[in-house]
């Protein structure tokens, strides 16, 4: 909904004080909302600069893609984000999971993202690559980006977050400051145990 992919049933999205019932993907990007999807949505057969500038290519003489400028700007962007990809001309399909995640993040930042959404960012990653991805997300937060992470990995959620929202079947079940809750409390809400305890106490 926030990324503009589907329409909400009700409610409003408020951006910079302006209320919207729904957004489309182009509007979301215009307002600085960028997404890093679980499958990363990369073109595996193309190189790093092509993926970072996908849909926003730099043109030269109106009809030609300026690959040199795209490569130079990609290198500066990756360096600013402290993402290490030694050979940017390789197809992204041969990169490691962490490097591919980095390319997707660089594209989101290049799109002008102020709010960056991560959908299960460490899914199918090993421990070492997951740690690199978590560090990258933390760096984005320290750099002033707003970051929203959708994850079932509570260890990662508590390592990254300042605020935790629990959603179940389209409903908000809880909204907590991370420092004021615990994994046990969040698990109770996710599994519905807390609701059962409340109903039991009410009957008693």
**Overall average pLDDT:** 89
Q: How many helical elements?
A: 8
Q: Roughly how much helix do the residues carry, as a percent range? A: 40-55%
Number of strands: 9
Describe the structure.
α4 (97-110) runs parallel beside α5. 40% of the residues lie in helices and 18% in strands. The longest helix is centred in the middle third of the chain and has 16 residues, at 127-142. The chain contains 8 helices and 9 strands.
Provide a short characterization of the protein structure:
The protein has 204 residues and is an alpha/beta fold.
Please give a handful of descriptors for the protein shown.
204 residues, three-stranded parallel β-sheet
Task: Spell out the blueprint of helices and strands.
Elements: E1 13-15, E2 18-20, H1 25-30, E3 33-36, H2 48-52, E4 59-60, E5 64-65, H3 67-80, H4 97-110, E6 115-119, H5 127-142, E7 146-150, H6 154-160, E8 163-168, E9 171-177, H7 183-191, H8 193-203
Parallel strand pairs: 3-6, 6-7
Antiparallel strand pairs: 1-2, 4-5, 8-9
Helix pairs in contact: 4-5
